[in-house]
Specification:
The chain is mostly helical. Helix content is 66%, strand content 4%. The chain contains 19 helices and five strands. The chain has helices spanning 19-26, 31-42, 55-66, 78-88, 97-134, 139-151, 157-179, 191-197, 200-205, 208-211, 216-221, 230-252, 264-285, 296-300, 310-314, 318-329, 331-354, 363-374, 387-440, and strands spanning 6-10, 13-17, 48-51, 186-188, 226-228. The strands form two sheets. The chain has a three-stranded mixed beta sheet with strand order 2-1-3. Strands 4-5 form a two-stranded antiparallel sheet. It is flat, with a radius of gyration of 35 Å.
Length: 448
C-alpha cells in the first residue's frame, strides 16, 4: 500500500507530514484539527491543507508535532505564540525549558498589566460618566460639574484654582501640626491663661487670692507651663472649617453610586477631621487640657494621620499611581524580603549574643543591632569589641548588602515596567482623542 504524504500550505510555506502527524492534529480538538476534519468531510481524497497562520510560529509548532522541542521564535511576541499554540492545540507546558522562563515572565507581566489596565479603565470610565452627567440638566448635572471642580483639575480653570487652594490648606494643616511640636511656637502663660488654668484650691495654695493680682512672686511659685501661640489656634480653626465644608460638599455633590465614593483619601480626611474636632471639644470642655498632658493626648496622637494628607498632593501625579501599583505587584517580593530579614536578624542576634561580647547584653538588644547592620544603616550605638563578635558583625554586614542587592532590583524593575506601560496607555489614549477630534471637525470649504 502506497504511503500517503499530506501537505500543509501556510502563506506560501510548504510542510509535508505523515498520516500519523495529521491524526495527532485532527484528534486534539483544536481549531486546526476541526479545519482538517472539515476538509476531509468535503473531500475524502484531499491531501493538501491551506492555513493562514503566522509562518515562523507554525513552522516551530509543526516541528514539535514531529518530535522536536517547542521553541518560541526570538522575534515573536509570546502572546502571539500563545494564540498559535491554542490554534494548533498545544498545551503551554510543552514549551522547551530554555524558552519557558521567557514565556512565564510574559504571563506574569501580562497579569500585572491587566490589573493596571483594569484600574486605569475604571478610573477613565468614572471620569467619562461624570463628564456625560455634567452635560445634562438638573441636579445630577450640578453635582457632576461641582465634582469635576473638586476632583479633576484638568477639566477647567476653576478646578485648577481649587486644587491649588486645597493643596495650600493641606500644607497649612501640616505646618500647624509640625509647629505645634516645636518650643519655638510656645510661650509662657499670660495672666488670663493662668486664671483659666488654676482652680480655686490652687489659687489659694499659690497665694493668688492674697496677692489679688498676678505678680513676680507668684510666677516663681507656679509650675513651668507653656501654651501654643494664639495665631496657630486661629489657623487651625480655619483648616477645620475648610475641611468640614469640603467633606460636606463632597458628600452632597457626589454624582455616582456610594460604593465609588469611599476611598483612601476620603477615609484619611474623615479620620483627621474627627481627631481635630475631638481635640477642639476636649479643650473646650476642660480648659486645662490645653496646658498639660492627659488621656486626651492619646487621641491627639492620632493627628499623625493628618500627615497622610500629603498623598492628596500626589494623587493626580501618574508616578505616584505607578508607585502604588508597584507595591501591590511586589507584595510577594516584599514578604520574601521581610522573611529573609527576620531570619537573618534572629540568626545574627543569637550568634552575637553567644559570643559573650559585653556590647550585647541580650538577644533583643542584639536584634536591634542586627537590623541596623543588615539594612546598612549602622548607627554605631552598639559596637562589638571581641574578635568573635567582630567576625559575626562582618558576616552580618556582607549578608545584608547581598540581600538588598538581590531583592531591591525586583521593585525597581516593576516600577520601570509599570512606568513604560502607563506611558504607552496614555499615548494611545492621547492619539485616539486627537484622531477623534480630527474626524469630528467638518471641512470648512467642503461644497454640498
Amino acid at each position: 500500500m502506497e504511503k500517503v504524504i499530506y501537505t500543509i500550505y501556510n502563506k506560501g510555506d510548504k510542510s509535508e507530514i505523515s498520516k500519523t502527524i495529521l491524526d495527532k492534529i485532527s484528534c486534539n480538538g483544536s481549531s486546526a484539527g476541526r479545519q482538517i476534519i472539515s476538509a476531509f468531510t468535503e473531500d475524502k481524497t484531499v491531501v493538501d491543507f491551506h492555513f493562514q497562520r503566522h509562518s515562523t510560529c507554525t513552522s516551530n509548532i509543526l516541528d514539535f508535532i514531529r518530535g522536536d522541542l517547542l521553541h518560541i521564535p526570538a522575534d515573536v511576541c509570546p502572546k502571539k505564540f500563545r494564540q498559535e499554540m491554542e490554534f494548533w492545540g498545544i498545551p503551554e507546558n510543552e514549551i522547551a525549558t530554555c524558552c519557558l522562563t521567557k514565556y512565564q515572565s510574559f504571563l506574569d507581566d501580562e497579569k500585572t498589566f491587566r490589573v493596571l489596565q483594569r484600574d486605569e479603565n475604571e478610573r477613565h470610565a468614572r471620569k467619562e460618566r461624570i463628564n456625560v452627567l455634567s452635560k445634562g440638566k438638573g441636579w445630577k448635572a450640578i453635582q457632576a460639574k461641582m465634582w469635576q471642580v473638586m476632583e479633576y483639575p484638568s477639566t477647567s480653570v476653576m478646578a485648577k484654582i481649587f486644587m491649588v487652594f486645597s493643596n495650600l490648606i493641606v500644607l497649612l494643616s501640616l505646618f500647624i501640626l509640625v509647629a505645634s511640636t516645636s518650643p519655638m511656637f510656645y510661650e509662657s502663660l499670660t495672666e488670663g491663661e493662668w486664671e483659666e488654668y488654676l482652680n480655686e484650691i490652687e489659687k489659694e495654695k499659690y497665694g493668688w487670692k492674697e496677692a489679688g493680682s498676678f505678680n513676680e512672686t507668684i510666677i516663681d511659685l507656679l509650675p513651668d507651663l507653656t501654651s501654643r501661640v494664639e495665631c496657630l489656634d486661629y489657623l487651625e480653626l480655619i483648616t477645620i472649617v475648610y475641611f468640614t465644608i469640603e467633606i460636606i460638599c463632597r458628600i452632597v455633590f457626589f454624582p455616582l453610586t456610594w460604593k465609588d465614593f469611599f476611598n483612601f483619601f476620603i477615609v484619611v480626611d474623615a479620620v483627621s477631621l474627627i481627631v481635630m474636632y475631638v481635640d477642639m471639644i476636649a479643650n473646650g470642655v476642660d480648659e486645662r487640657e490645653k496646658y498639660e498632658d492627659t488621656f486626651v493626648e492619646a487621641i491627639k496622637s492620632l493627628q499623625i494621620i493628618r500627615v497622610m494628607r500629603l498623598f492628596r498632593l500626589l494623587k493626580h501625579v501618574s508616578s505616584f499611581r505607578i508607585l502604588v501599583f508597584t507595591i501591590r505587584a511586589s507584595l510577594k517580593d516584599l514578604l520574601l524580603m521581610l522573611l529573609c530579614l527576620l531570619t537573618a536578624v534572629l540568626i545574627f542576634s543569637s550568634l552575637a549574643f553567644f559570643t559573650r561580647d559585653p556590647a550585647f547584653t541580650s538577644i533583643p538588644q542584639a536584634s536591634w543591632w542586627a537590623i541596623v547592620t543588615l539594612t546598612t544603616v549602622g548607627y554605631g550605638d552598639i559596637v562589638p569589641k571581641t574578635l568573635p563578635a567582630r567576625l559575626v558583625a562582618s558576616a552580618c554586614a556582607v549578608i545584608g548588602v547581598c540581600m538588598l542587592a538581590i531583592l531591591i532590583p525586583s521593585l525597581v524593575n516593576n516600577f520601570m515596567l509599570f512606568n513604560s506601560q502607563l506611558n504607552v496607555m496614555q499615548q494611545k489614549k492621547k492619539t485616539k482623542n486627537e484622531a477623534f477630534l480630527e474626524n469630528s471637525v467638518l471641512p470648512v470649504n467642503k461644497k454640498i
